[in-house]
Amino acid sequence: QVQLLESGGGSVQAEGSLSLYCTASGYTSGRYCMGWFRQSPGKQREGVASVDRSGRVMYGDSVKGRFTISQDNAKTTLILQMNSLKPEDTAMYYCAASSIGAYCYTDQAGRYGGYAYWGRGTQVTVSS
């Protein structure tokens, strides 16, 4: 059973920085997608940043140039470095991953698909 565990959320003032971490367990072998998503009250969940099975990185337009996604060498920990945070970045942030070999995508508009496994989320609050 695949499990995703997020950590690193918290509260910060505008222009501050936070790092989010997601550790995946339960995979045997093979390649899969991982990504960060967020949802704020009254809004749909949107893709923030992702790494596909080929290692290709995608960022949503709203975070491009401010957020950086990376993985550890074992590809089991996903990291989101968030700089120059804005109040509109306030949301619950979720880590998600696909099944091994599955097709998955995120795009610059925040749309996504193919993510089968989700963490419980970690709250990020940015005050002005």
Summary, kept brief:
This protein has 128 residues and is an all-beta fold.
**Rg on CA atoms, Å:** 14 Å
Q: Tell me the major beta sheet.
A: 7 strands, mixed
What structural category characterises the helix and strand content? Answer: mainly beta
Low-confidence stretches are none
Helicity range: under 10%
Content of β-strand = over 45%
| Number of alpha- plus pi-helical segments | 0
Overall average residue pLDDT: 95
Say how many strands there are.
13
Instruction: Give the end-to-end Cα distance, rounded to a whole number of Å.
Output: 40 Å
Quaternary organisation of the protein chains:
single chain
* Order of SSEs: EEEEEEEEEEEEE
Essential attributes:
about 130 residues, mainly beta, seven-stranded mixed sheet, 13 strands
Structural topology:
Blueprint: E1 3-7, E2 10-13, E3 18-25, E4 34-39, E5 46-51, E6 57-59, E7 67-71, E8 77-82, E9 91-97, E10 105-106, E11 112-113, E12 117-118, E13 122-127
Parallel strand pairs: 2-13
Antiparallel strand pairs: 1-3, 3-8, 4-5, 4-9, 5-6, 7-8, 9-12, 9-13, 10-11
Please describe what this structure looks like.
The protein contains no helices and 13 strands. The protein is an all-beta fold and 128 residues long. It is globular, with a radius of gyration of 14 Å. The model has no long low-confidence stretch (mean pLDDT 95).
